[in-house]
């Protein structure tokens, strides 16, 4: 990547005190680094969306409903500067994305996603000894560069460790944004559903 943006790049956020949704402040600026980053990440986001459509079609369809609703009813977005341009470059089926750079992630649960919504995490960089921990399942996964993990982050405690320079590209659906647009949570997916589809 040609540059690094620290912190979150959230497409639309909903304030806890109101149901107003808005394009995040950084993405309302027409020529911000966030827009350059989105343009650079279009193919990656599309590829991750394709992965999601296979491993959890319900979450993918929820994201598609979100994008469709915002496209058809931009008036639902309170602060919508650059919304049209943003919708042209936003290729993710999620409402939110974040970059996490060179940081170990202690065990945690993600509070802004839904209980049945799978988040996607892509880990890249020049690092070694990458591990992804999910103690509630009793698993420690190898977390090498290029690994994509789908996890119900609000339900399962998880964390990551590594040595070296690691970047995690995390994508998720903010529950309060989907709720404010009256988009229902996706159905739970079960392993048997995946096995049945693969047969």
Summarize the structure.
It contains seven helices and ten strands. The chain is α+β, with helices and mostly antiparallel strands and 199 residues long.
Estimated share of beta-strand residues: 25-35%
- Sketch the topology as an H/E string, one letter per element: EEEHHHHEHEEEEEEHH
Helix fraction?
A: 25-40%
What number of structural domains do the residues give?
2
Low-confidence stretches: 1-9
Shape: globular
What Rg do the Cα atoms give? 17 Å
* Count of DSSP H/I helices: 7
Main beta-sheet strand count, sense and barrel state: 7 strands, antiparallel
Which structural class do you get from the secondary structure elements? Answer: alpha+beta
Strands, total number: 10
End-to-end gap:
38 Å
The whole-number mean of residue pLDDT values reads 85
Description of the molecule:
The structure is a single chain. The chain has 7 helices and 10 strands. The longest helix is centred in the first third of the chain and has 16 residues, at 57-72. Strand 2 (12-14) and strand 3 (21-23) form a beta hairpin. The protein has helices spanning 25-28, 33-40, 42-55, 57-72, 83-89, 175-180, 191-198, and strands at 8-10, 12-14, 21-23, 77-79, 96-101, 105-108, 119-134, 139-142, 147-151, 158-172. With 199 residues, the chain is of the alpha+beta class. It starts with 7 loop residues before the first strand and ends with a helix. It has 2 domains: 8-96 and 175-183, no CATH class; 99-170, no CATH class. The strands form 2 sheets. Strands 1, 5, 6, 7, 8, 9 and 10 form a 7-stranded antiparallel beta sheet that branches. Helix 3 (42-55) crosses helix 4 (57-72).
